Structure formats: structure tokens, C-alpha cells
TrEMBL record:
GO terms for molecular function: acyltransferase activity, transferring groups other than amino-acyl groups. The gene is CSON009342. Residues 2-126 form the Nose resistant-to-fluoxetine protein N-terminal domain. Keywords: Membrane, Transmembrane, Transmembrane helix. The chain crosses the membrane at residues 142-162, 215-238, 258-284, 313-335, 374-395, 404-422, 442-464, 476-494, 500-523, 544-564, 576-598. The keyword Lipid metabolism does not apply. This is CSON009342 protein. InterPro entries: Acyl_transf_3_dom, Nose-resist-to-fluoxetine_N, O2_lipid_transport_reg.
Length: 640
């Protein structure tokens, strides 16, 4: 039984099956009898001791990670490849150092036919006993997370205990006389804070489909559809380290029918377009704020600018911070107990580079050093917010200078993107895509295109809504162009060998074309040139999902990695099972995103709203990316 539970070569080695794991459960069954009740009335051909056999000494399941150099396995140069996973059922008294030496000695002797035939040249990297480290619970990240959760739990509990008093206050909070009759503003602040942590009220906010009059309901549909497609891509990406046929997945990714998944990362540009659109629209529409900026001194505007940035930081950080903690903790946990070798050691990158995430600058460094690598877009969003808010202040003070800076920045972004694309000799090959990730995928300089286009669209809608007149033919022509552009960009990599020049030009201009097409979807729905597509995307029931998309986006990669990392055997790239797993993960992520939203996201949104209202009757908080599509609510609680 111990031999059966240990490693033996499997088929599929050429296509990336590096998992010779045996059976962890089979090994552990030797420590105690299996509880399988069988009657004696039927004859069986099995050995009588198979079910009840117990080892004469305690055994333990170990995993050896061994690097090989076989020329008989496909090599893509993507993440960490060529790592054999060998399951070993051995006496529990064995030390990992002893197993390491014995395993390497065995390979050095070249006694295995499989090793010789496939020219493995194996080198043992590590031996894992799959036991959680003794000091895991005392890690700083664990203690800090537990502290945050405890404080949050207490606030939710107090909100529940004081529910009746808070309801009385809430019913009368519109009466301005309360503020005049209250001797302590601090007590009202505490009341608002506790009200913000009300689980019941936050749930009502999520599932409330009543919208303000001045809204962009189409944003809810766009965010929902894009988030779901991105999670399909994320399932493929973050389960990669467990696949026993990874190169078949690469093959599938080049087929026409899977292009919408393989190119799903471009959908992040839709969120950037929406962000730029809302930023420009909400800022330029705020007449009181614009007048205040014009009359303010440089110092007063500097303080106002910093307040907007701080509000934005506080708006984005609570859920983001929790996810960063969970990423480091789950990475450490999987590094100890998972049978798999993690391609991306988030525990190490987060321990070394956590401060980059705190300041939202992680995308300015190498992509292999990212802590929670999917948060690069959050960093881009924060950086774009700061940069374009600064341009907004300049524009309000001097429109000519503001326009010049905006157009100059757009031209610079195009120039830098062109330079970096040709520098990397870009082609739509997986190895080049991975190698150029730092400059062409996560860099704020090369991903700013949709933000520029979104700002231009917001400006157009605000200032030219009545002047922008199209006849039916013109509208239909633009719609056809936009749909073909989106479809073309999503399938632009069908032709895999067009040459460096064509590939580079396609990448450069496809982003602009994609951004303009998405901007038209926003513009058309706002200016009365919509169709069945905009009506579908504007369905109010998308709001249920769209209000949690920020948490949904941050949580799903973490959940996917954790679920697959805890399995005891490899996964397989298979369409039918992939659909089933993806639906399950999407549903579970949605449930968790509701929990995260009501616990960490909405409370701070509401607190920010209260702080803004306490200084002015008009809400002047910072715009955000989408979960709520009211032009009022977007200023308080929104994101990708």
C-alpha cells in the first residue's frame, strides 16, 4: 500500500504532466483502519488486508519537488516550468534533510529507466512534509488581520445592539435642527460611524435597485459582464500551477472559440474608460467646487487636492488591505501544506514588497515582484486619479493650459507605448507576453489610453449633449464600427505570426480603438443613440452585482489559488469541468464579495460621505470607478 501511494510516472509528460503524486489519502490510511463496512456474504477477489491493513510504524506523506531538464517536454518559458512533483509515503520519523539526500542520491545513480529515456537530469529542490509551520499563527500579518477583524466585528456588533437608537437618529437625520440642538458633534460622528457598520442597512444598499434620476445605468451592466468574463480568465491563469496538461490549455487559447477568454485582460480597459468618464463628468459638473477652485489660492487648492487624494485612498484601501493580508497569509499556508510548488510565492513577495502596495506603486516595479499581482490595476487607478485630478485643478484655473497638458500627456502615452512595444519586439506569443508584462501590461504609462478616452467622453457628454446630433444612419454606422472594433480587438491574436511591425502596431492602436468603441457605448446610452444592447446593459438587476465588483475583482484570484492549492491531485484543462468549476467559483466569490462589501467597503464609503457633508451641504467627495452608478453615489462609493 505504501508503494501504491508513492510516486510513479504518469502519461502526458511531453505536454506538461509533472505530477507523480501517488495518493496522499492512501498513505494516510496506513495509520488507521479505513471505516469501510463490507459484508461477508459475497466472495471478493481482493486481498483480505487491503482495507484493514495498518503500518507497523507511523507513516507520513512527503512531496519532493525536483527540477528536470528533459528535452522531451514542451517548454513555453512561462512562469516556473519543468518541476516534477513526487509523492513519497515514508516512515514519519524520516527527516526532510534525509529524504532530500536519499532522493538526490537515487537520481544521481541513474537507475530509473524513465529518467534515462526522457533525459531528465533531475535536481531536488525541496522536500515538503505538508505540515503547517509552528509559528504560523504568530505571524505579524495573521495577528494584524485578526486585530482588524476583531475591531470590525465589534463595530458591527455595537451597530446591531444600538439598532433601535440608530434607527431613531436615521429617521430624523434630515432635520437640520438636530445639528443645532446637539451640543456634541462628536456624539453625532460616533452615531454615524456605527450606522455605517449596520449590516442590515448595507445589505439594503446593495440590493436596492432604486436609482437617482441622473444616472448611467449602463455602467452596471458593463461592469457585471466584464467582471464575469475576467473571472473565467482568472480561473485558467491561477490554476495553472496545478495543471497536468498546461500546454494543451495554451493550444486552446489560440483557437478562435476561446479568444474571448484568452484576450479577457483587455476588458480591464473598459473599467479604466468608465473611471475616466465618471471622473471628468463628476468633476466638471460640480459647479460649486469649480468656483471654489478658481477663487482659491495655491495653498488652499493644494489642501483641497490632498483631501481628495486622501479620501480616494481611504475609499479604496479597506478591502484592498484585507485582501493583501489574506494573500500573504494564504500564500504562507499553501507554501507549507500544498502538494504543489507555487509558481508565484505571494508570501515572499508580500513580505518583501508590502509597502509598494500600501502606496499603490507596485506596478512601477517588475511584474514578478508583485504582491497580489492582480492589484496592478488598482495601483493604476489610484495613480490615474491623482494625475488627472491635478490636471483638473489646472484646467479649472486655466482651461488652455489644462487642455494642453491633457493632450500632451495623451501624446506622450502614445509615444511611450510605441517605444516600449517596439523595444520588446512584440509578437502575440505567450513567452513574449510574459516577458514584456512589466512594460506592456502593468505599467501605468502603457495602460493609460482608455482613461484618456474616458475623460474625453465625459467632457463630451457634459458640454456637447445638446450639440451632438446624429441621424439614424450615422448612429448605426458608428454602432457597427464600435461592435466590429470590440470584436476585432477581442480576436486580434488569431493571426499569430504577422511579424513584429504589424503585431506592435496592432497592440498600440487596438487599445485606442477598443477604448473609443467602449466610450461610444457610454456616450450613445447617455445621448439617446442607444439600441437593444444598451437597453440590455442598463437593466436595473445588474445593480445587484455591480455594487460588489470591486470586492469581486480583488477576491476571485485569491479564492481560485487557495481552492486549487488545497487539492491533493492535479487539475486538468477540460471545457466541461472548467465551466462547472468557474460557475461555482463565480458564485462563491459573489457571496464573499457581499460579505467584504458590507463589512469593509460600504462602512468607509458612508463615513467618507458623512465627513464631506459635515463640511458642506454639497457632497464633494472624490469620484471613483463603478459599483454604484448614480452621479451622486459614484462620488462616494465606486470602483472596478
Amino acid at each position: 500500500t505504501a508503494i501504491d501511494a508513492s510516486a510513479k510516472p504518469n502519461s502526458g509528460f511531453i505536454w506538461g504532466n509533472n505530477f507523480w503524486l501517488g495518493s496522499k489519502e492512501g498513505c494516510e490510511s496506513l495509520n488507521e483502519e479505513l471505516s469501510i463496512t463490507l459484508s461477508s456474504r459475497y466472495p471478493r477477489i481482493m486481498k483480505s488486508l487491503l482495507v484493514n491493513a495498518v503500518a507497523p510504524f507511523p507513516v507520513q506523506y512527503f512531496v519532493a519537488h525536483v527540477r528536470h531538464k528533459s528535452p522531451w517536454q514542451v517548454e513555453v518559458k512561462f512562469l516556473e516550468e519543468n518541476i516534477l512533483h513526487l509523492g513519497l509515503c515514508l516512515p514519519k520519523s524520516c527527516q526532510t534533510s534525509e529524504i532530500y539526500n536519499l532522493t538526490q542520491t537515487f537520481f544521481d545513480a541513474r537507475q530509473d529507466d524513465y529518467q534515462i529515456f526522457y533525459e531528465l537530469e533531475p535536481e531536488v529542490i525541496e522536500i515538503k512534509n505538508l505540515e503547517l509551520g509552528e509559528n504560523f499563527i504568530w505571524k505579524k500579518s495573521v495577528l494584524m488581520l485578526l486585530t482588524i477583524l476583531a475591531i470590525t466585528g465589534v463595530l458591527h456588533f455595537l451597530s446591531y445592539l444600538l439598532k433601535d437608537n440608530l434607527d431613531i437618529f436615521a429617521e430624523n437625520k434630515q432635520d437640520e435642527r438636530i445639528l443645532e440642538q446637539t451640543s456634541s458633534k462628536q456624539s453625532i460622528s460616533k452615531t454615524h460611524i456605527l450606522t455605517s457598520f449596520s449590516i442590515e442597512k448595507n445589505l439594503q444598499t446593495i440590493f436596492n435597485t432604486n436609482l437617482d434620476r441622473e444616472i448611467f445605468p449602463i455602467i452596471g451592466g458593463l461592469k457585471t459582464i466584464c467582471s464575469l468574463i475576467i473571472v473565467v480568465f482568472h480561473v485558467q491563469w491561477y490554476k495553472f500551477f496545478t495543471l497536468d496538461n498546461p500546454y494543451i490549455m495554451f493550444h486552446d487559447g489560440e483557437q478562435v472559440r476561446y479568444q474571448w477568454i484568452a484576450n479577457a485582460p483587455i476588458l480591464v480597459d473598459i473599467f479604466f474608460t468608465i473611471s475616466g468618464f465618471l471622473l471628468a463628468y463628476n468633476y466638471l459638473k460640480n459647479v460649486k467646487q469649480n468656483a471654489l477652485i478658481r477663487q482659491n489660492s495655491l495653498w488652499a487648492n493644494t489642501k483641497m487636492f490632498l483631501k481628495l487624494v486622501v479620501k480616494r485612498y481611504v475609499r479604496l484601501t479597506p478591502v484592498y488591505l484585507i485582501v493583501n493580508f489574506l494573500t500573504e497569509i494564504s500564500g504562507s499556508y499553501l507554501a507549507d501544506v500544498s502538494v504543489f510548488r507555487l509558481h508565484e510565492r505571494t508570501d515572499l513577495t508580500c513580505q518583501q514588497h508590502w509597502w509598494r502596495n500600501v502606496f499603490y506603486i507596485q506596478n512601477l516595479f517588475e511584474h514578478v515582484e508583485l504582491c497580489a499581482n492582480w492589484t496592478w490595476s488598482t495601483a493604476c487607478e489610484m495613480q490615474y486619479f491623482v494625475f488627472f485630478t491635478l490636471i483638473y485643478f489646472i484646467y479649472v484655473k486655466n482651461e488652455q493650459i489644462g487642455r494642453t497638458l491633457f493632450l500632451g500627456a495623451a501624446g506622450s502615452a502614445l509615444t511611450i507605448t510605441s517605444y516600449l512595444t517596439f523595444k520588446h519586439r512584440f509578437e502575440p506569443a505567450f513567452d513574449i507576453l510574459w516577458d514584456s508584462g512589466t512594460d506592456l501590461y502593468i505599467s501605468p504609462l502603457t495602460r493609460a489610453t482608455p482613461y484618456f478616452v474616458g475623460i474625453a467622453a465625459g467632457y463630451l457628454v457634459l458640454h456637447y449633449r445638446d450639440k451632438f446630433v446624429l441621424n439614424k444612419t450615422q448612429s448605426q454606422l458608428i454602432w457597427c464600427t464600435a461592435i466590429l472594433s470590440i470584436a476585432g480587438c477581442m480576436h486580434a491574436t488569431i493571426w499569430r505570426s504577422p511579424g513584429i511591425f504589424i503585431s506592435s502596431m496592432t497592440l498600440i492602436y487596438a487599445r485606442w480603438l477598443f477604448a473609443f468603441a467602449n466610450a461610444w457605448v457610454l456616450i450613445s446610452s447617455t445621448m439617446g443613440y442607444g439600441n437593444f444592447l444598451t437597453r440590455f446593459l442598463s437593466n436595473k438587476y445588474f445593480i445587484y452585482f455591480s455594487r460588489t465588483t470591486y470586492s469581486f475583482y480583488l477576491i476571485n484570484p485569491l479564492l481560485i489559488t487557495f481552492i486549487y492549492g488545497l487539492t491533493n491531485g492535479p487539475s486538468h484543462s477540460d471545457t466541461a469541468m472548467g465551466i462547472l468549476v468557474t460557475v461555482g467559483i463565480a458564485f462563491l466569490t459573489y457571496v464573499l464579495s457581499i460579505v467584504f462589501s458590507i463589512s469593509f467597503e460600504m462602512p468607509y464609503c458612508k463615513i467618507l460621505g458623512f465627513l464631506s457633508q459635515s463640511k458642506s451641504k454639497s457632497v464633494m467627495s472624490s469620484p471613483s470607478i463603478p459599483p454604484i452608478t448614480s452621479t451622486k453615489e459614484v462620488l462616494k462609493c465606486d470602483y472596478i
